[in-house]
Design a protein that fits this description.
Blueprint lengths: L2 H7 L16 H15 L13 H20 L6 H19 L7 H5 L6 H28 L5 H4 L7 H4 L1
Helix pairs in contact: 1-6, 2-6, 3-4, 4-6
Length: 165
């Protein structure tokens, strides 16, 4: 998906100083490209639920959280980009807490059982994490004018039906 299509889905982007054009530094631009390329290879963010193996998802989210932490450490902590990465990392932590990685592992063990409470918990946590990533991915792609592969772009929120008219 082209960044211009992503920009059309957004209802607005705030700027710290009104009326002033902001050019991100080279460090942030290359980091943003690196992050988007990494996210494009994380199936946990976009693969259909029926194809997911819960234990693989957990492993992937752990790797994703480590990657985001590493990227955050290379940036100016006060930038909008860094804030988006921190929000995505927080979504990873929340997912891992909800599925019980540090405690009750039953959610991961029984998540593939149709109708089991563990599947509801697991897939709702996965959907919430994907939603958070979609919002911040849209912000990053628009801010840095980066195209996003169509497979990953499915998590970018659509415009509200009222906004389309």
């Amino acid at each position: 998906m082209k960044f211009s299509e992503i920009a059309n889905r957004l209802t607005g982007i705030s700027s710290p100083i009104l009326g002033v054009s902001w050019q991100p530094g080279e460090l942030e631009v290359s980091a943003a490209r690196r992050v988007v390329a990494y996210l494009e290879d994380r199936r946990v963010l976009y693969a259909p639920d029926e194809l997911e193996v819960p234990s693989h998802c957990v492993h992937s989210v752990l790797e994703l959280r480590r990657f985001l932490t590493s990227e955050i450490g290379k940036l100016d902590g006060g930038s909008e980009f860094a804030a988006s990465l921190r929000a995505m990392r927080a979504a990873c932590r929340k997912f891992l807490e909800r599925v019980g990685v540090d405690g009750d592992e039953r959610t991961v063990l029984y998540a593939n059982r149709q109708g089991h409470w563990a599947s509801w918990t697991f897939y709702s946590a996965l959907g919430e994490m994907r939603g958070t990533f979609g919002v911040h991915l849209a912000r990053i792609a628009t801010q840095f004018q980066i195209d996003v592969e169509d497979k990953l772009a499915v998590i970018i929120p659509e415009k509200d039906s009222e906004d389309r008219d």
